[in-house]
Design a protein that fits this description.
The structure holds two protein chains of two kinds. Chain A is an all-beta fold. Chain A contains no helices and nine strands. Helix content of chain A is 0%, strand content 46%. Chain B contains no helices and eleven strands. The chains are: A mainly beta, B mainly beta. Chains A and B meet through strand 3, strand 7 and strand 8 of A and strand 5, strand 9 and strand 10 of B.
Chain lengths: 105, 121
């Protein structure tokens, strides 16, 4: 079955750019979505179809996908962006990455 | 208000059964695929099952195939997950989510708050 892999953790200083990767075989041929989950809360869709932002998601969130890697980029990271982030793709079944804990320090 | 509300979680012994429900409001439930996603304590998200708008197609992750059944009642705007032969590894928060798909993409734009299922003796 298809798998996607994320780094367990990423750290960033406030105001800097955070990049979270998601890797999978020929992932660039598939659409990737990203979800933000804060402690005790439900996941929230922040990027879909590689690089589209749902209504209400700040412009500092962007996405890209090429080759074997998709990337979620958060520009001007704020303390409120500290959360777990999950990538998700579809390959006849839905598949989630293991999640990346973003620490803003 | 557009929302999903899960219910039915609780403590159950290994080998037992539980039925989860998810009630939708604020949108036309019958026009969406729906999904169950679970999250074990301290772990990541795991897709469990989904069901087509009219219930004619259902898909499951291998680990629950034959034990769990997803269903829906569009007249009641409700999604269900019947869980049988429960195991300790089924312990998780179970979320229902609304599917959006098209052109090879599949994603979830609306999530409930989840309901906790604990399988323990």
């Amino acid at each position: 079955s298809y798998e996607v892999t994320q780094p367990p953790s990423v750290s960033v200083s406030p105001g800097q750019t955070a990049s979270i990767t998601c890797s999978g075989d020929k992932l660039g041929d598939k659409y990737v979505s990203w979800y933000q989950q804060k402690p005790g809360q439900s996941p929230v869709l922040v990027i879909y179809q590689d690089n589209k932002r749902p209504s209400g998601i700040p412009e500092r969130f962007s996405g890209s996908n090429s080759g074997n890697t998709a990337t979620l980029t958060i520009s001007g990271t704020q303390a409120m962006d500290e959360a777990d982030y999950y990538c998700q793709a579809w390959d006849s079944r839905v598949v989630f990455g293991g999640g990346t804990k973003l620490t803003v320090l | 208000e557009v929302q999903l509300v899960e219910s039915g979680g609780g403590l159950v012994q290994p080998g037992g059964s539980l039925r989860l429900s998810c009630t939708a409001s604020g949108f036309t439930f019958s026009t969406y695929w729906m999904t169950w996603v679970r999250q074990a304590p301290g772990k990541g998200l795991e897709w469990v099952a989904n069901i087509k708008e009219d219930g004619s197609e259902r898909y499951y992750v291998d680990s629950v195939e034959g034990r769990f059944t997803i269903s829906r009642d569009n007249a009641k705007n409700s999604l269900y997950l019947q869980m049988n032969s429960l195991r300790a590894e089924d312990t998780a928060v179970y979320y229902c989510a609304r599917d959006l798909y098209g052109s090879g993409s599949w994603y979830f734009d609306l999530w409930g708050r989840g309901t906790l299922v604990t399988v323990s003796s």
